[in-house]
Amino acid sequence: MSSDEISIYVHWPFCLSKCPYCDFNSHVRDNVDLNKYSKAYLKEISYFSYFLKNKKISTVFFGGGTPSLMPANLVEKILNSLGKNSSLSSDAEITLEANPTSYETSKFKEFKKIGINRVSLGIQSLRDTHLKFLGREHSVKDALKAIESASSIFYNYNIDLMYSLPNQSRNEWIEDLSRAISYSGKHISLYQLTIEKGTRFFSDYRNKKFSMPNENLSKNMYTDTVEFLENKNIRQYEISNFAMPGYECKHNLGYWKYKSYLGIGAGAHSRLHLENNIVKTVVMEHSPENWLNSVSLNGNAIQSECILDDKEVATEKVIMGLRQFDGINLKEIGDFINKSNMNHCIKAGFLNFEKNKLHITKKGTLVLNSIIESLLT
Q: In which element (H, E) is residue 331 found?
């Protein structure tokens, strides 16, 4: 992505139900005024026309919430508005997240017709017992139908799975993973279940309604995963993401490579690269209703914005950059990291330094947070 390119993230904050593990900005509402929200999205895009002007949009990502619940004509209006205020690259990657319910997958052809060329399916598990525990609205049968539908309509698609679930064994996980890639081996995102504050699982776990796998079992599941997928020529290019060559998610790579992106919608974040190497972050109003009211009144729903200093930029580059295996340029962060701790991590085999780039190693991925903390101490 060159300096005149930008990525766009569009947040749809609504879901049919709130998953007990989810700490994302997602909300359940009985009624959503689509007309008002449609006008608000277009108004906020128009507000940022000053920044979008003369930029080429390389990726668009509709996330949530559950953006596949959006009417296709609303998605189309947003894409058209982005095209009017900027220009969409001819090979732009345009992704939409979806759950594998029959209602959502029935709209895949409509979404493709209006420009969506990649979908990301929140499968989460291929066992009904685990899906029930995770509070998902779909069954394994629904999931497999959704994958089949996505593969027949879209050239590029991803599936999400979760591991380190209660009562999940290593063998069971690899069986599920093997089954998943037999249906979808181009791109797969794999997330360890974590218990986050503010979720129903947080209180359930605290009240001992379920127990989590121990740390060693979780680590073994992770290393099993990497080894298994490597043997299938599905390369790990980021901590949680694996793809066949050429199917990496361009949008997410932009985050990890510290590129410029604009976030539209309730709770969306932006990282804007301005002139003279200035980096500004922008955060939108979190509540959908507050966002809607602010945009209606002011043309935008900016809650806060901040110009980052050099140390803050370097810190973000370390946090984001070490998640992906391409590495980060030491020239961009060298003055702001602990060189002694860096050298210790290199000697211990947690980091690798090659061609002026600092890379995480497979060994290092198991203790990534500790490595980042030591570099920034």
A: helix 330-333
